[in-house]
């Protein structure tokens, strides 16, 4: 309790007498409680995600955290110009793929996309590991769900955009190159795009929350939360061209969409 009170997770009212603080109450909320649980895994030689996918209880905690975390932030379509950058110029036809959500979990991002753009032309494809896709319930019929490991070649060829939300920060640079190269083999030069919806940290003066998040990703999965300079270096190393970085309009948020294409 001396340590807990020293860092503000509780307060002392006397010798061995304590009361809750706002931080105490915050970590009892389902989203943050789930976050604590999913950060304490051990005793396995498997990768983090292969390990948690085998444990329904841990997977439930992971989805609780991800859903709650996203619900408090702007959605990427609220600041990224979808109509001008994705829908405009896309190939028309019901069999053409407009957007592939790579590692998209239960499809929350595509469901939100459908709500805002109900009359777009093209197909929406959700991809995640087969264990996730096989247990989906209630997914909108307009979304095609495919079991896929993004460390394997991308099976959906020639989509207008391949969207990845908070995936690369889970992996070191070399693994990210593997993920991106698998997408690049499916892209049409001058047409297909990769949309990386990620944190983009400033090269100096990083806010405390995001600095701590970087340490968290490193300790759990050998990943990293990258600065703008690190993103540019990573994509340039595999001949991806950054068209533009679109930052969130939420004050203080470091989330952005990195729009990239094959180098011409």
UniProtKB/TrEMBL annotation:
Record-annotated O-methyltransferase C-terminal domain positions: 98-236
GO molecular function: O-methyltransferase activity
Domain of life from the UniProt record: Eukaryota
Entry annotated with the keyword Methyltransferase: yes
Pfam families documented for this protein: Methyltransf_2 (PF00891)
Keywords: Methyltransferase, S-adenosyl-L-methionine, Transferase
Name of the featured protein: O-methyltransferase C-terminal domain-containing protein
Organism: Lepraria neglecta
